[in-house]
Amino acid sequence: MIEDFVAFDFETASGKNPCSLGMVEYKNGIKYREFYELINPEVAYFNPFAVQIHGITYEDVQHEKNFAELWEEMLPFIEGKTLVAHNAKFDNAVLLHSLQRYGIELPQYTSFCTLQRSRNLIRLPSYKLSSLANFFEVPQFHHHNALEDAFVCGELFLKLNRVEEELQLQEKHGIDFPSSYLDWIAEKQGQNVQIRRKALAGFSESFNGLRFVISGNFQNFSRAEMQKIIMQHGGRITGAVSGLTNYLVCGTEPGQAKLSKAKLTGTRIVSENDLLKKMKISDHL
Question: Domain BRCT: where (predicted)?
Fold first, then answer.
């Protein structure tokens, strides 16, 4: 688990031209030091939409140092570090653009993206930094201030580390691995913890020889977890509905093509709750 890293965030005047940068360095999972500066992007045009978001105007930065003049102060936070950003593709692009613009050699660093990691690890309706801060109960008072966004990103990275670590332990040791943190997340997502634990722990041959296709989003499980549950009960997962398919398991927003094919072939269409009842789970909690 990575505990030494630098969370960073650029705000831009227009395009990839930065007007502020915030960086927060963590050591052993604890905030160690920070950096924040307004940056003169040396461009005349400030996108009105961007200004509306972060509140930094041309007048605010016209007498500030440019990126090159600040580089020596930035470098200790970047060279050889693990950099973390929310939508890292954008922030890395701003960094690269600025280095190329001023003819500065690209330093060595590794990069992680909390946007991508959160999408991979948890299911939420929104993955905006402010939404994730609210979900994980990270205090945030000045969204789109580069320093505060960097701090929130750093705290989020640590929480995602914990989620990933406990998921790995659970995968290794089984669902009986005690994880109040994963249960807390499941409850906040509106999931039934008892159902999750019982379904993921169960092994039987109740679906032995039956073919399943899954489609849509489920209340208590990710699609990968739903596949795992079916296979643990002897079922076989296929990608497309055919005349050999026994069940199409549908969550919300299922694929219409799969629904139409299931009706055409006579495949039984069942809900998440129907499936749990067939496994004798939801009626016995």
Answer: 202-285
